[in-house]
Amino acid sequence: MGGGGQLTESGKPGGGRSAGVYTWDEVQSHDSKTDQWVVIDRKVYNTTEWAKRHPGGFRVIAHYAGQDATEVFSAFHPDPAFVQKFLKPLLIGELAASEPSQDRNKNAAIIQDFHTLRTQAERKGLFRARPLFFCLHLGHIVLLEALAWLMIWRWGTNWILTLLCAVMLTVSQSQAGWLQHDFGHLSVFKKSRWNHLLHKFIIGHLKGASANWWNHRHFQHHAKPNVIRKDPDINMLNIFVLGETQPVEYGIKKIKHMPYNHQHQYFFLVAPPLLIPIFFHFQIMKTMVSRHYWVDLVWSMTYYLRYFSCYIPLYGVFGSLALISFVRFLESHWFVWVTQMNHLPMDIDYEKHQDWLTMQMQSTCNVEQSAFNDWFSGHLNFQIEHHLFPTMPRHNYYLVAPEVRALCAKYGIPYQVKTLWQGFADIVRSLKSSGDLWLDAYLHK
């Protein structure tokens, strides 16, 4: 094995050496579920067993098995020194001196310039969060929830006030979703246990969901955005076909689970109204029970206990169920349009083994900045900057955006910015385009 000898059962190099020396071809051969190596800063690690204990989920590591994971490692781990104590026992060797630092199609110049940009952003303090910003955001979420209940308790349950209550709860739930997204990505407070506890509180007690479920799903999306079979956000369960590759494949194979040429029409009846109240709700509950996330389950149950304790005395059991279902229905529309406008119209394909900047830029776009767009989308209108720097607090995206745009211009990489309405419209346009590709392949190939 590249001068390193064979591996022992413990995963360490044999042949009497303390570490092996490997080529990229050798590293790339270890990319199966039961045999996973990754490269970080030219060092080779056997992550096969560790992947099961990885806080971000085993699939994130599996998606980089046999690859250079230096850039994604830097993106997700703001404190590399802390992580080293976990990496050290996994070290099995390093790349041979004759091997390049990058694998496959990755551009060394882009990687170096992006590393420089990230270092400059760190020196400017752009990765330091302002706790007051997030505390105020949490305060307006709690205030909306309290006002919704107080309004009904004080003035009664007529349909106008009920509708207003539902809207206020929808806004609160959506904003809580963006806030838990923040705490899932970054350290707002210096002590990590407070960040961990607040994430559990926001996603569990304020939303009734699971922190572990979100972490394991969402980190995959960031690690391999819009990559078929690796990004769960584009796993459409054969209801939709996306991009330019998947529709043609389905058409050639005569796969017709749905009339995909009409997917841009039935999208309105399926995705926005059903994603959160049906699919996500079922998936979250199933995941917490099947994977024994009992702490998450307790946190989520406190949400339902609080909600029904507040609203059953006002609406009764049936009325309370109807209200929460309507809120989930409205929130689902908000969530789908905001999250999909940045990704669905972009490149969706199989693994291309690109550098971090190129991969993220091809799968993300921005929506114009405004006070409303920032608030409405939880600053995910800066989706490009968020994907490039997932641990950067959202209030600093606009500061790093000009530097990112300049770097993209240097290498001729498109930096797309749309209006909010154009972003929404492009979701439908992309679905129609993909459906037409499917129909053409289905009928003629």
UniProtKB/TrEMBL annotation:
Key words, A-Z: Fatty acid biosynthesis, Fatty acid metabolism, Lipid biosynthesis, Lipid metabolism, Membrane, Oxidoreductase, Transmembrane, Transmembrane helix
Entry's Gene Ontology cellular component terms: membrane
Catalyzed chemical reaction(s): (8Z,11Z,14Z,17Z)-eicosatetraenoyl-CoA + 2 Fe(II)-[cytochrome b5] + O2 + 2 H(+) = (5Z,8Z,11Z,14Z,17Z)-eicosapentaenoyl-CoA + 2 Fe(III)-[cytochrome b5] + 2 H2O
Subcellular location: Membrane
Enzyme Commission designation: 1.14.19.44
Residues in Cytochrome b5 heme-binding domain copies: 19-96
Associated pathway: Lipid metabolism; polyunsaturated fatty acid biosynthesis
Gene Ontology terms: biological process: unsaturated fatty acid biosynthetic process
Annotated stretches, region: Disordered: 1-21
Gene Ontology molecular function terms on file: acyl-CoA (8-3)-desaturase activity
Sequence intervals crossing the membrane: 132-153, 159-179, 266-284, 304-327
Family annotation (CDD domains): Delta6-FADS-like
Biased composition annotated in UniProt, kind: Gly residues: 1-18
Pfam families listed in its UniProt record: Cyt-b5 (PF00173), FA_desaturase (PF00487)
Protein topology in the membrane: Multi-pass membrane protein
Family under the similarity heading: Belongs to the fatty acid desaturase type 1 family.
Family annotation (PANTHER family): ACYL-COA 6-DESATURASE, FATTY ACID DESATURASE 2
Protein name in the entry: acyl-CoA (8-3)-desaturase
Species, as recorded: Trinectes maculatus (hogchoker)
Lineage: Eukaryota, Metazoa, Chordata, Craniata, Vertebrata
